[in-house]
Amino acid sequence: MNPTQENRFRNKINWYVFLMSLLVVLIHSVNLAIDNTTLSSMILTADHTGAELAGITGVAGHVEHLLSNALGQMAVPGFFLISGYLFFRTLHGFRDIGRKWQERVWSLLVPYGAWNVLWYLAYVLTGRRHFSLTAMSEAAANHSCNPTFWYMYQLMLLTLLAPLLYLLLRNAFVMLLSLLLLATAIGAGATLPLVNADALIYYGVGALFACHGRGLFEGAAADARLLRKAMPGKVKGEAEIVVLPVAANARQRRSSMERGCRIAGIGLLLLAWLLQILTPAKLMSFVFYDGSGIARMSMPAYLMSGGALARWIGKCLQQLPLFVLSLSGSGPQALVAIVRRLLLVLGVWFVLPGDRLPEAKPYMKNSFFLYAVHYPIARAQYYMIQYLGIPYDGWGEAVRLALYLLTPVVAVAAAYGLKRVLKRYLPLQWKILSGGR
Q1: What is the Cα–Cα distance from 434 to 161, expressed in whole angstroms?
Q2: Per-residue pLDDT averaged across 417-435, rounded?
Q3: Prediction pTM value
Q4: Residue 177 is inside which H or E element, if any?
Q5: Which of 36, 165, 206, 235 pairs as cysteine with 84 (C-beta 3.0–4.6 A)?
Q6: Do residues 84 and 206 touch, judged by C-beta distance below 8 A?
Q7: For residue 252, how many other CB atoms are within 10 A of its CB?
């Protein structure tokens, strides 16, 4: 890959990870409920039973639910997908795994421990924990005071599985079959020790693309492939004659490939949207209640649930009672959620126009640090609103929604400002906390 293609790919990575980071902030910024899980339960209760919940059933509640739950839940799967891709993208043998592990010690293990210790000390200073070296060591290892770093913990475990994954990845069919078997086990209710099975699927799909679908994932295979075909055995003078037309043809093919990927991405997003019909609440409204549940839904809920198309799918599912009943278990529902999130993260990646994205701004290249510091910023907004007594309905609903949408802006600005201060005055501390990023 030439430098131009590499820069384009890295720029797309920056955009993608930044978008996922914004969604993480929005997950923790909800202010119409104590957290996004509670908000989701309240929204679904209101939409599918006809209950009136002031400040929840309106536009603000549905916007927060859409961004923090329907879309927000793809944020961390997106991180796992990209992490798996980047780890195996330049892996050419088992020797490279040792080199990659050494790099991840600095970029994963060191900041993981440092942030966990900082959070533990914050708990001690606020009187929520008693200080001891043993407790601090435990907090550094198990992120008990820094719950958002469960992602880092899982990513380190997945990194340790690299030798096993690389064995499977040597054959695309074997890796794909392994992922399908894992998905089947999840559907049957099985779990894995230590490692989250869904995280392994997202990470494994990224690794599969890195080893066997790099041209499709990056949309840049046409350039090198055409040049190799057009220039075998050419001497220097002959090669110079064919470079320009072949390069132009490669650019045209790459552009065509990226247009096709964007169309496919839209299709994946549409399919993920329709998979909502297989969640318990949607099945109750669109299948079991035979339309009576739909009548109680608000218009925003109806449209977000798939509208007329979902209603038609519901009628079709009424003819398959055994299939619908089999979806009610925790295992099948976990599998539905995984598939839907995987479709979302792949859909967003392919929809992003890598050939036309502007250069990512410096604050957009600060996603890890933003992830590390966003939580207290997001929750401070909620407690400030509660302290001020802003109502849930009327004018208060509009204010809460505005503050919700403003929180990512505040978090990005605060993280970038803190980054600049640390880099200038405490460069070593910055290097540790950012993992050298």
Answers
A1: 24
A2: 95
A3: 0.89
A4: helix 172-187
A5: 206
A6: yes
A7: 12
